[in-house]
Amino acid sequence: MRVRADVTGDKDVLRELVRFHKAGDRVKDVLGTVAAKIAQQAKTLTPVDEIDGGDLRDSVRATKPRATKAGAFTASVIAGGPRLEGLLSERGHKEPGLYAAVVHEDPTLTHATGQYKFIETPWLQEAPKVPDMILSELDKARG
After folding, report:
1. Global pTM exceeds 0.90
2. Does residue 34 belong to any structural domain of this protein?
3. Residue 3 maps to a domain
4. What pLDDT was estimated at residue 25?
């Protein structure tokens, strides 16, 4: 989605910049709300195995929404961290720091609770709603 404005004078430029800034804040608010919702849903789906004692589930978090240098807006839901780095060797993997990725992607692993694709599943449910949410917020900012 692209947003465009045509301006002719200094006052128009300032007005449009203020409007875009407010609209950008609204877009970041939407992304933050959606990312937080996805993270919460992902935690309920995250496997809790004896090997990690719930550390993987507890590591699921949403990042703060931000504007990139390229002018895009982004927010993420991530899992993993230092407490999980040594666990892959026990599952036959040699690279440290990939435990969350392996558990997320490998459908052959069995878990006491939870499932693989624990972040992707809620993301696929929520992502189709985001464009309409953003358009609604942009309409509010414009109106």
Report:
1. no
2. yes
3. no
4. 85
**Position 140, amino acid:** K
pLDDT at 26: 85
Tokens of 33: 């709300």
Q: Tell me the residue range of the domain where 63 lies.
A: 10-142
Q: Compute the distance between CA of residue 39 and CA of residue 57 in angstroms, rounded to an integer.
A: 10
Do the beta carbons of residue 35 and residue 65 sit within 8 Å?
Answer: yes
What per-residue confidence (pLDDT) applies to 5?
44
Sign of the dihedral defined by the CA atoms of residues 107, 36, 28, 140, in that order:
positive
DSSP annotation of 132 reads H
Question: Total structural domains in the chain?
Answer: 1
Cα separation, 26 vs 22, in Å, equals 6
Tell me the average confidence (pLDDT) per consecutive run of 10 residues in the chain, 143 residues long: 48 56 81 96 95 92 90 88 68 64 92 94 95 85 69
Using CA atoms, how far apart are residues 10 and 20, in angstroms rounded to an integer? 15
- Structural domain contains residue 64: yes
129 in any annotated domain: yes
CA dist list (Å): 136 to 22, 86, 95, 129: 13, 45, 44, 11
